[in-house]
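Working notes for the structural subgroup meeting. M.R. asked for a predicted model of this chain before we commit to crystallization trials. I am recording the input and output together here so anyone reviewing the notebook later can reproduce the run.

Input as submitted:
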Amino acid sequence: MATASSPLQVRGEVISLKRVGEYYQMAIAAPGIAERAKPGQFVALAVGGEPTSMLLRRAFSIYAADERGVFGGTIEIVFARQGIGTKWLSQLPSHSSVDIVGPLGNPFPIPASPLKTLLIGGGYGSAPLFSLAEVLRTRGCRVEMFLGAATGERLFGIVEGRRAASQLTLVTEDGSVGLRGRVTDHLDELMTRTQTELIYACGPMGMLQAISVFAKERSVPAQCLVEEEMACGIGVCMTCVLPIRGDDGVIRMTRTCVAGPSFDGDTILWEEIGSIPSGTLGAEDLG
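Returned structure, recorded in token form:
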């Protein structure tokens, strides 16, 4: 029997699809999933239609969820057109049917007491931060937001960020919008000014690694929503494992889809991603 927190598989209906800069924003009627979704969770969509040879689902962070929409519960996702799966999604007309499973993964951990938080997003990786900001504000947290991308067209959520945060800072590598450079070029100044006590970060793995190192040096915890390839999204296939050091000091190859996708950045062995580090639990059994 499904519980209020367990994932569902439903036939969703595409309500809208629009271009936002270099990305696509899709709203899907997905009753049941929308009611269960919390910030930081994701959904997995079957792509290609019934006769497809694309067997693996595509995972997308939930940008927004509305359990009381006109079409019933709806969720929204944001994606870039990067391969044949997302190309197929980007061409779906309204009222198309999509097979969707969710919500998957664990939501962002929310502090028990009000803190000064800094939410950092890279590209369309910023999508799940806006619903998180709403929850943090209801808990009395101060919310600052920092969005970065290579160019202005690759920034996502400028308008939403201005609504969600006490202050929004933008940075682009080419300087076309906001400050010039990368997120980490300006992070020290921003953290000092805002007296950041907790970081939430979503975006490319390289950015998350740099933020984690930076935060650790300043003794500020950083929750990182990692971007790992997920073939199943439910912990069966083991394609999304990361080397994680637990509270007991033991390194384990941990499934991102079921243990994450949000992790304390200090627990991830960033330099060892893609390998099995020496001392990993069970590694000796591999020969």
